[in-house]
Amino acid sequence: MEQTFGSYVREKRMARGLSLRGLAAKLEVSPVYMSNMENDRRPAPAKEKLDHLIEILGLCQEDVERLLDLAARSRTRQVSADLPEYIMERDIVRAALRTAKEVDATDEEWQEFINRITQRGTQDE
Protein backbone atom coordinates (compact mmCIF):
# COMPACT_ATOMS: atom_id res chain seq x y z
CA MET A 1 0.00 0.00 0.00
CA GLU A 2 1.26 3.48 -0.90
CA GLN A 3 2.33 5.62 2.02
CA THR A 4 0.12 8.62 2.74
CA PHE A 5 0.62 11.76 4.78
CA GLY A 6 -1.57 10.33 7.54
CA SER A 7 0.16 6.95 7.70
CA TYR A 8 3.56 8.66 7.74
CA VAL A 9 2.57 10.93 10.62
CA ARG A 10 1.20 7.92 12.54
CA GLU A 11 4.43 5.99 11.92
CA LYS A 12 6.61 8.87 13.14
CA ARG A 13 4.32 9.57 16.12
CA MET A 14 4.45 5.95 17.24
CA ALA A 15 8.24 5.80 16.75
CA ARG A 16 8.50 8.75 19.17
CA GLY A 17 6.26 6.94 21.67
CA LEU A 18 3.55 9.60 21.50
CA SER A 19 -0.13 8.80 21.83
CA LEU A 20 -2.57 10.31 19.37
CA ARG A 21 -4.02 12.43 22.17
CA GLY A 22 -0.54 13.46 23.29
CA LEU A 23 0.47 14.61 19.83
CA ALA A 24 -2.86 16.39 19.33
CA ALA A 25 -2.33 18.30 22.61
CA LYS A 26 1.22 19.32 21.65
CA LEU A 27 0.01 20.38 18.20
CA GLU A 28 -2.92 22.22 19.78
CA VAL A 29 -5.58 20.39 17.75
CA SER A 30 -8.38 18.11 18.83
CA PRO A 31 -7.82 14.34 18.99
CA VAL A 32 -10.63 13.97 16.41
CA TYR A 33 -8.78 16.31 14.03
CA MET A 34 -5.56 14.34 14.61
CA SER A 35 -7.32 11.02 14.03
CA ASN A 36 -8.94 12.29 10.83
CA MET A 37 -5.54 13.48 9.60
CA GLU A 38 -3.83 10.17 10.38
CA ASN A 39 -6.64 8.25 8.69
CA ASP A 40 -6.50 10.44 5.57
CA ARG A 41 -9.96 11.85 6.07
CA ARG A 42 -8.42 15.30 6.29
CA PRO A 43 -5.52 16.78 4.28
CA ALA A 44 -2.30 17.98 5.84
CA PRO A 45 -2.59 21.17 7.90
CA ALA A 46 -1.28 24.61 6.93
CA LYS A 47 2.46 25.33 6.92
CA GLU A 48 2.54 26.75 10.46
CA LYS A 49 1.05 23.54 11.90
CA LEU A 50 3.27 21.42 9.65
CA ASP A 51 6.36 23.24 10.96
CA HIS A 52 5.18 22.65 14.53
CA LEU A 53 4.52 18.96 13.76
CA ILE A 54 8.03 18.60 12.30
CA GLU A 55 9.47 20.16 15.46
CA ILE A 56 7.41 17.94 17.79
CA LEU A 57 8.36 14.78 15.89
CA GLY A 58 12.05 15.81 15.76
CA LEU A 59 12.39 14.82 12.10
CA CYS A 60 15.71 14.73 10.24
CA GLN A 61 15.99 16.59 6.92
CA GLU A 62 15.15 13.49 4.84
CA ASP A 63 12.04 12.84 6.94
CA VAL A 64 11.03 16.51 6.73
CA GLU A 65 11.23 16.40 2.94
CA ARG A 66 9.20 13.17 2.82
CA LEU A 67 6.57 14.66 5.16
CA LEU A 68 6.31 17.84 3.07
CA ASP A 69 5.96 15.86 -0.16
CA LEU A 70 3.23 13.68 1.33
CA ALA A 71 1.52 16.77 2.75
CA ALA A 72 1.44 18.39 -0.68
CA ARG A 73 0.10 15.20 -2.24
CA SER A 74 -2.65 15.10 0.38
CA ARG A 75 -3.76 18.56 -0.78
CA THR A 76 -4.30 17.78 -4.46
CA ARG A 77 -1.89 19.46 -6.83
CA GLN A 78 0.11 21.54 -4.38
CA VAL A 79 3.87 21.86 -4.15
CA SER A 80 5.75 20.90 -0.99
CA ALA A 81 5.79 23.75 1.53
CA ASP A 82 9.56 24.23 1.34
CA LEU A 83 9.57 24.90 -2.43
CA PRO A 84 7.12 27.62 -3.61
CA GLU A 85 9.17 30.58 -2.42
CA TYR A 86 12.35 29.20 -4.02
CA ILE A 87 10.53 28.51 -7.29
CA MET A 88 8.75 31.85 -7.43
CA GLU A 89 11.86 33.90 -6.56
CA ARG A 90 13.91 32.48 -9.46
CA ASP A 91 12.85 32.88 -13.09
CA ILE A 92 15.41 30.30 -14.20
CA VAL A 93 13.95 27.65 -11.89
CA ARG A 94 10.49 28.13 -13.38
CA ALA A 95 11.98 28.03 -16.88
CA ALA A 96 13.86 24.82 -16.06
CA LEU A 97 10.74 23.16 -14.66
CA ARG A 98 8.66 24.18 -17.67
CA THR A 99 11.34 22.94 -20.07
CA ALA A 100 11.56 19.63 -18.22
CA LYS A 101 7.79 19.32 -18.41
CA GLU A 102 7.72 20.13 -22.15
CA VAL A 103 10.35 17.54 -23.02
CA ASP A 104 9.01 15.07 -20.43
CA ALA A 105 12.36 14.78 -18.64
CA THR A 106 13.03 11.28 -17.37
CA ASP A 107 13.91 10.32 -13.80
CA GLU A 108 17.41 9.47 -15.07
CA GLU A 109 17.83 12.96 -16.53
CA TRP A 110 16.67 14.56 -13.27
CA GLN A 111 19.01 12.30 -11.27
CA GLU A 112 21.92 13.28 -13.53
CA PHE A 113 21.06 16.95 -12.93
CA ILE A 114 20.90 16.38 -9.15
CA ASN A 115 24.23 14.54 -9.23
CA ARG A 116 25.90 17.39 -11.16
CA ILE A 117 24.64 20.03 -8.74
CA THR A 118 25.54 17.94 -5.70
CA GLN A 119 29.02 17.33 -7.10
CA ARG A 120 29.48 21.06 -7.72
CA GLY A 121 28.48 21.70 -4.10
CA THR A 122 31.19 19.39 -2.79
CA GLN A 123 33.83 20.93 -5.07
CA ASP A 124 33.17 24.36 -3.53
CA GLU A 125 34.14 23.14 -0.05
TrEMBL record:
Domain HTH cro/C1-type: 9-67
Entry-linked PROSITE patterns: HTH_CROC1
Pfam families in the record: HTH_31
GO MF annotation: an example: DNA binding
Protein name: Helix-turn-helix domain-containing protein
Species of the source: Candidatus Allofournierella merdipullorum
Lineage of origin: Bacteria, Bacillati, Bacillota, Clostridia, Eubacteriales
